[in-house]
Amino acid sequence: MSGDGTADGGGHGSSHGSGHGTGHGRGPGSGLSRPTVSRLPGYLRALAALARAGTVRVSSTDLARHTGVSPAVLRRDLSSLGQLGRRGVGYPVAALQQAISRALGLVEDQPVVLVGAGHLGSALAGYTGFGERGMRVCAVLDADPGLAGQRRGSVVVRPLEELEGSVAESEARLAIMAVPAGVAQSVADRLVAAGIRGLLNFAPVDLVVPRGVTVRAVDLSTELQILAFHQAELRQ
Amino acid sequence: MSGDGTADGGGHGSSHGSGHGTGHGRGPGSGLSRPTVSRLPGYLRALAALARAGTVRVSSTDLARHTGVSPAVLRRDLSSLGQLGRRGVGYPVAALQQAISRALGLVEDQPVVLVGAGHLGSALAGYTGFGERGMRVCAVLDADPGLAGQRRGSVVVRPLEELEGSVAESEARLAIMAVPAGVAQSVADRLVAAGIRGLLNFAPVDLVVPRGVTVRAVDLSTELQILAFHQAELRQ
DNA sequence: TAGATTGTTAATCGATTAACAATC
DNA sequence: TAGATTGTTAATCGATTAACAATC
């Protein structure tokens, strides 16, 4: 699920969402609207599949089909990144991948700290999709001392006390929280104090963070409830 | 992440999103807008916390603070469910919980089929949040015969061949997919053919489903990429 | 009564859509 | 040239916001 919620503008303290874009407005720096930003990763995913298949050029109609948006939305999104296509021809796949990656600020080997080594944390630590997109889980922390020393993915679980040290030495700016709801806020506070600027939160809690810190929330129950709504609606 | 994407109206075949609301429009049945539906679960969560704390009445300003939306949005959302508050007084917590649950079509003990018993599937099977919200994982299936018979949460893993039978006997209409990208579409096809009408997809693939079936996508890489964008934007 | 708070209206804002001129 | 496809404009649509009358 995608949530969203940026503790940037208006003044409401906490962040909330499920990957969907709540609210309007543009980020301060770039000229990309929030909906556009939320769609770019999907384009990147479809482009990677095309590149693997050896496709070098793609039209907005084709790419739109692969990403579930309309061709008009796709062209508008891409044109906001610059003049990437050629009329009558289409878009070059490789150049498009590069342009989107640059627009998203994806840098090679971005370190990410993961807090929580339970089932969910373990799943996240072993998720290969991060590596393919330039992200690397550089540390896994857990409050349970019994887990310290165990492997998760390619890293070894460390005790929670080493949170600040892990953030400092890796210079990570992004963190993933797969911890129980009860400790989520305090973990978030520590992460932010240590220098983290983006949080992906799986705990069913609305985190309160200072301005300048972005929270995206993934709440599994919320997702299922929205799904249940659509399903119930169809029954009527 | 909340994704969204309903294969209802417009015509673009696949669904895409991450819990965020892409697109506009209202569901066919109720008079609830998509953004409203996506916010209701958050209200329910905040209300549950208030109820646990013994609060019986809450104002839109207070509840808004707990959910990260503006009071105006909250009042508008709630008024679309009916006249639930009293001017000068506020909203009764218990009645609000009931009204939102009813609006979301939450019924007691809604069965959900889970496909995939890896780390992520195990985390989902053990997630207690579902039970608290009237959902129950009634079956866990996995293609790996070695996992059959093992416990996940309170149910026993069954071989993938029993997918159709599991859906039929449980009469489930919702399913969660925690399977590899390569098999996601074929699993989705089988689930839909068996009668599933709502899919929560964790595989990084845009599923193509018939109209009348809702897909919500949770793509962890997408979430992190959006987070990276916000973080990079702040650096400029 | 006076203060508080909802429900709703009107205004603003932003995103999507459709259409098409520009251009390969 | 003729066909195809982008980039962009104008129109439509829907959501948010602010303000306030109704009402407890």
How would you describe this protein?
The structure is a homodimer of 236-residue chains. Chain A is an alpha/beta fold and 236 residues long. Chain A has two domains: 34-103, Winged helix-like DNA-binding domain superfamily/Winged helix DNA-binding domain (Arc Repressor Mutant, subunit A), CATH 1.10.10.10; 108-225, 3-Layer(aba) Sandwich (Rossmann fold). Helix content of chain A is 41%, strand content 16%. In chain A, strand 7, helix 8 (181-194) and strand 8 form a beta-alpha-beta unit. Chain A is globular, with a radius of gyration of 19 Å. In chain A, 54% of the residues are buried. The interface between A and B is large, with 92 and 92 residues. Chain A binds a DNA duplex (24 and 24 nucleotides) through helix 3.
